[in-house]
Design goal:
Helices cover about 30% and strands about 20% of the residues. It has 21 helices and 31 strands. The chain has a 7-stranded parallel beta sheet, with helices on both faces. It has a 6-stranded parallel beta sheet with strand order 15-27-26-16-24-22, with helices on both faces. The chain has a 5-stranded antiparallel beta sheet with strand order 2-1-6-3-7, with no helix packed on it. Strand 18 and strand 19 form a beta hairpin. Helix 2 packs across helix 3.
């Protein structure tokens, strides 16, 4: 109530009450009027702020209107962070809200009026005058939320990093002038490479799926710093900057970002780009993010979270090794970085470059649809660049006594011995640790903990077995099925392999690289480098040879993408080996007749991806079809499924009971869980996402709290 409001007249005195009682009533009304909060005057121009609140609930996935107090008129601009009162109730006749909680949000628009007929609550606070939610970023986040059937607030949490006052208070540097167009360099190895680079520099927007050649390009670069594909990506970025536009490149991990960062510094100098990774720390990462948002830099190289980097006038989006599982975000609504970049390219009319040694099935789909063109070298260039690939199949292993004694086939041992005279040798094994999985040597029953039924593991050669879940030692194991006491390895880990190789080559140093300790690079001197897939360090001058052991462990995964993933891992390791003309050799322990092995031998990732795509088209599997997975308790999944109005022709696959999973450091959970897959034809993906999101919002509005995990286009349906 405003201070100028008249004081209500006291009620007439009841019979028998005198002036003293009436005076006390007047005083009580005055005290009540003074205690009422005064309504602050609203802004005269555009007094309504439309706000998206930071509350990721599907049934609240809309904008809310608040009044703008006059004191906040200057700072409450579109894009800034604000704090508002949410929930509670409006006191009639007073235009104020009581109860509820203060939550954060973003102003998306200032308006002259509101669609809401009742009184509006005022903004409580402007947290920062920095406009972090630009109109372009808001449109992107809304498109991602719609595609993946999630709330806008959840996407905004992925897109905008937390605020740091010190970083906001610092001025960002002025942008540098665009660089000159670069020379083709390594792109000259591809028939369409120079033309692609020239199109970027001229301001055009070509779209390509790039099958990168292994090894370094033709240009001279510092050893071990930024060779091959990083320099070629840097040239694509430089060509885009030369046209006056921005460029965004995503890479699967911090090591890859560091290689591209070094190549960009070498080519462009400092000040033209920033690298965005989680390893920077929250404040430094926000400082660099602000430099992008303010237009100080026009190029970004980063990991998955950089897919939302707020670059203005975007000219190029690029993703390296898009088949890497790290590009699939594990936070609601689970967006895939490649698809977010394709949305950005379509929205901004930007160029797109999807590159890697392997070709994903999704990239093959883009080629088949004509959305992108292939960018690859001719076969003669591939033969000159790739190493020689040899295979060791089951028949050779069965007749090879050395393979049984030391897990190293004779061909692999001979190749390693000869290559060590020339340089380092890479050994890829599919698991970390010593002996990650053990089984009974007689009946092959998996060895499990007697306390929690977790898998038993050998951490070293002499110590007792330990449970992989609860960590308890088990020094007196006996098979529950046959009573046998001897064990055999199901999969041998990197440390055990390093130990065996150390005995086979006693004069050669052995280095390991895995999840706990990943090496970025190794010198070009003779050494054995044992690494798990994805953790292979770069060798100065390239490896003299590579051994790909236990290939069956990658191929036998119960997953639709097992063959595709195995080939991607093998190509990534083999690409680090010197060309065949320089003596580079790769030995893969797998049957030569298998399709992924044949694709490796021929170095034909594009042909493999096209064949895989054709088979999936016949079976109606992604990416030809669009899918949504619903995972939860049987009752919750059935309840949600009953609310979904599916598009015509949709298929319901399941429900399928899921295997029990364990909590952190604990035993398997006993709650039943199942999954249902919803499949629609191409072109109906948006309708499917809308139907699932609407049903989930209706279920939440009914206060059904039993959770159901929704994932559009799940990466794993095996």
């Amino acid at each position: 109530m405003a201070a100028t409001d008249p004081v209500p007249a006291p009620p007439p005195a009841p019979p028998g009450e005198g002036p003293a009682v009436q005076l006390e009533l007047v005083r009580a009304e005055l005290r009540k009027a003074r205690s009422r909060p005064k309504q602050a005057p609203s802004a005269v121009r555009l007094p309504v702020a439309r706000v998206v609140v930071d509350k990721g609930l599907s049934h609240l996935d809309r904008y809310f209107d608040y009044s703008v107090p006059a004191r906040l008129d200057e700072t409450a601009q579109p894009g800034v962070r604000v704090r508002v009162r949410f929930g509670g109730h409006v006191v009639k006749g007073q235009g104020r809200r009581e109860g509820g909680t203060l939550i954060d949000g973003y102003i998306v628009e200032r308006r002259a009026d509101s669609d809401f007929s009742g009184p509006l609550s005022p903004l409580s606070q402007v947290l920062s005058p920095e406009p972090v939610l630009t109109p372009e970023l808001l449109r992107l986040c809304r498109a991602v939320a719609d595609r993946y059937a999630g709330p806008l607030a959840d996407v905004l949490q992925l897109a905008i990093p937390p605020k740091h006052n010190r970083a906001e208070a610092e001025p960002s540097p002025a942008p540098l002038p665009p660089p000159a167009p670069p020379a083709p360099g390594g792109w000259a190895r591809y028939p369409q490479g120079p033309e692609f680079l020239a199109a970027l520099a001229a301001g055009r927007s070509p779209r390509a799926v790039w099958t990168a050649l292994p090894g370094p390009g033709t240009e001279s670069v510092p050893p071990g710093a930024a060779e091959g594909w990083p320099v070629e990506l840097a040239r694509a970025v430089a060509a885009t900057l030369a046209s006056g536009r921005g460029a965004l490149v995503l890479l699967p991990d911090g090591r890859a970002v560091a290689r591209l960062d070094a190549a960009l510094l070498e080519l462009l100098g400092s000040g033209q780009h920033v690298a965005l990774t989680a390893g920077l720390g929250p404040e430094e990462r926000y400082r660099r993010w602000l430099a992008v948002s303010r237009g100080s830099v026009r190029a970004v190289a980063g990991t998955r979270a950089a897919m939302f980097a707020p670059l203005a006038d975007l000219g190029l989006v690029a993703v390296w090794d898009d088949g890497d599982s790290g590009y699939s975000d594990q936070h609601v609504p689970f967006p895939h970085a490649r698809d977010v970049l394709l949305l950005r390219a379509a929205e901004a009319g930007a160029a797109a470059l999807i590159g890697g040694f392997a070709v994903s099935v999704e990239s093959a789909q883009l080629l088949r649809a004509g959305w992108a063109a292939p960018l690859a070298a001719d076969r003669e260039q591939v033969r000159r660049t790739a190493p020689l690939i040899r295979t060791v199949g089951d028949q050779e292993l069965a007749a090879d006594g050395a393979a049984h004694a030391a897990r190293l086939p004779t061909l692999a041992w001979r190749t390693a011995r000869e290559a060590l005279a020339q340089g380092p040798v890479l050994v890829q094994v599919p698991r970390r640790g010593y002996v990650p999985r053990l089984a009974c040597a007689r009946c092959r029953t998996a060895a499990r903990c007697g306390q929690c039924a977790g898998p038993l593991e050998a951490r070293d050669a002499d110590g007792p077995l330990h449970c992989g879940w609860c960590g308890r030692p088990d020094g007196d194991w006996r098979c529950r099925e046959c009573g046998f006491t001897r064990l055999r390895a199901q999969v041998v880990g990197a440390r055990r392999t390093a130990e065996e190789l150390g005995r086979a080559f006693p004069a050669v140093p052995v280095r390991t690289s895995g999840r706990d300790d990943v090496l970025a690079a190794v010198p070009g001197t003779p050494a054995l480098v044992v690494a798990t897939p994805g953790a292979e360090p770069v060798a100065e001058g390239g490896y003299a040879a590579a051994l790909l052991l236990d290939a069956w462990a990658l191929l036998n995964r119960p997953d639709l993408r097992a063959g595709e993933e195995a080939l991607r891992r093998w190509l990534g390791a083999a690409a680090l080996v010197r060309p065949q003309e320089q003596g580079g050799r790769v030995v893969v322990v797998a049957e030569a007749t298998l399709r992924p092995v044949q694709a490796l031998v021929r170095w034909d990732p594009a042909g493999f991806a096209a064949t895989e795509l054709g088979e999936r088209a016949e079976l109606g599997f992604p990416p030809v079809s669009r899918m949504a997975s619903l995972t939860g308790s049987p009752d919750a999944v059935a309840d949600l499924l009953a609310l979904i109005r599916l598009p015509p022709g949709a298929d319901v696959l399941g429900p399928v009971e899921l295997p029990a999973t364990r909590g952190p450091g604990g035993p398997e959970r006993s709650e039943p869980s199942e999954r249902v897959l919803l499949r629609v034809a191409p072109g109906q993906g948006a309708a499917l996402a809308t139907a699932v999101k609407s049903a989930y919002a209706a279920r939440m509005a009914r206060k059904q709290t039993d959770p159901v995990r929704i994932r559009i286009d799940p990466p794993d349906i095996g």
